[in-house]
Amino acid sequence: MRRRIAQLWRTLSVTGVLVGTLFFAASLTPSLVPRPFAMQGVLSGFSLAAGYTVGVFGRWLWSYLGLPLPRGRVDLWIKLVASAACTVIVIVFLREASGWQDSVRELMEMPPVEGTRPFSVGLIALGVFMALLGFARLFRLTSQWFAQRFGRIVPPHVSQVVAVAAAVALFWSLIDGVLYRFALQSADSSFQQLDALIEDELDAPQRAELAGSGASLIDWEGLGRQGRRHVSSGPTAGEITEFHGAPALQPIRVYVGLNSADSVEARAQLALAELQRSGAFERSVLVIVTPTGTGWVDPAAMDPVEYLHRGDIASVAVQYSYLPSWLSLLSQSGYGAETARAVFHAVYDHWRALPRDDRPRLYLHGLSLGALNSERSADIYDVVGDPYHGALWSGPPFRSETWRWITSSRNRGSPAWLPEFRDGSVIRFMNQHGMPSRPGQRWGPLRIVYLQYASDPITFFEPGALWREPEWMQAPRGPDVSPRLRWFPIVTMLQLGADIAAGAPAPVGYGHDYAAEHYIDAWIEVTDPRDWTAGDTARLKLKFDHRTGREALYE
After folding, report:
1. Band of the pLDDT at 204, cuts 50, 70, 90?
2. Prediction pTM value
3. 307-316, 421-430, 541-550: which range is least confident on average?
4. Closest of 522, 515, 521, 523 to residue 547, by C-alpha
5. What is the pLDDT of residue 170?
6. Angle between the 156-174 and 118-150 helix axes, to the nearest 10 degrees?
7. Both ends of the chain: CA-CA distance in Å?
8. Domain residue spans in the chain?
9. Of the candidates 299, 358, 369, 366, the residue with the CA atom closest to the CA atom of residue 328
10. Is 368 left (phi over 0), alpha (psi -120 to 50) or beta?
């Protein structure tokens, strides 16, 4: 065993190990959300491998340029000094890791971390690094094998280039065409089975106006797991009446699952037919909701708006996937846009044909991947003659072209994490602390609000962080972003990618977990509920305050 370890050490690049250690150390610094130790270990392993690659490339470039390289005893002493330096760096940074994580947790009102488990982090990181190193060496052997074959018929330099290209093509076809598709199909199958699960505590609704009831055009089983949860939850007319002290209506919730019809168009038309059957177009407010990847509709968003409008509201959502949003976002960013467009046009075309004075106000809503697809559902040029009334998009993903353009075109002096756009008459941004206000600022006929937290990695992940510091890291920073966060080439992008996968540990009101009390402010801005007072807002926020535990809104 010792002989093998010694042999492995001799084959490693000293420059690669040293640069890799620096990358490993940088990966322990804070990013947007707290990281569990296992995720930290994986992140550190990838960072170590990335740094090692940079170091190996640097040494190769040095040699290629004909610059002198250390040999003999000098090379041995350099290895010994580098080993000692790497050991010291690892120990020091692992000791500091808990303080860095606490700098994030403190801003999010979380208790201090009990320990970062440095030994476990180091072992996981080493395992990940060794696996990636083995993969790289397998690639090199494959390339050399191709080079030997091609070298018989073409010049040596040409054979090496062709061999690398052939190895890349082979590995890419295996990863993308076999492993990736197998993993995606397995995930889709697993989530499909979960979606079909009918939970014992959920019974088909008895009220005729609800989707999945005996009078509904949509079967209870066809709603799927998320659809059954959605239509079975939410405030009742009695609860809304009790809150307002005046008679209220039962909110209408229409949901169409993937199994409710065989095609996108069929599901969109089924949603429209169910809206007509349930009397949704006779309500004062109608919301087209684009769900997340799994089909989930956030109750923290929908429950409060039904209180705001005294139950005189209807909503419709159509499922387009079984996969979680982050998986769909990283693999197929356009996933669900076709469904969102079909649903919007089916509902909008019918709504537009109704008399202007006898139709509900029409709004759009989406969270995460739902926000991205909701944005894509309506082309402004198709509705400019008779626009819908507004939209609330929360946690907009970084791949949203509209969001990125608006953010980059923000007014000078406003931060990237809370932009101000032109005169604010059409588009405004808000976070946990509300939205910036300017004297004389007024809404126009179309109101669009982006609700986003500065600590949301789904929103603020940036591929360009590979080589440049993101604008949202510049001062002043968001109130929930650690002042100890620093930008490092390559490492910061890996940290943000890990944040997307580790976003769940962030508490409600931070990261990608949006709180009902913040939705309340956003919906008030977008829908301007009638006869609503500041006192009503305070009472509703108290009811939905996630810290009181009085409403089980989040899963």
Report:
1. confident
2. 0.90
3. 541-550
4. 515
5. 74
6. 130
7. 48
8. 2-192, 197-453+514-544
9. 369
10. left
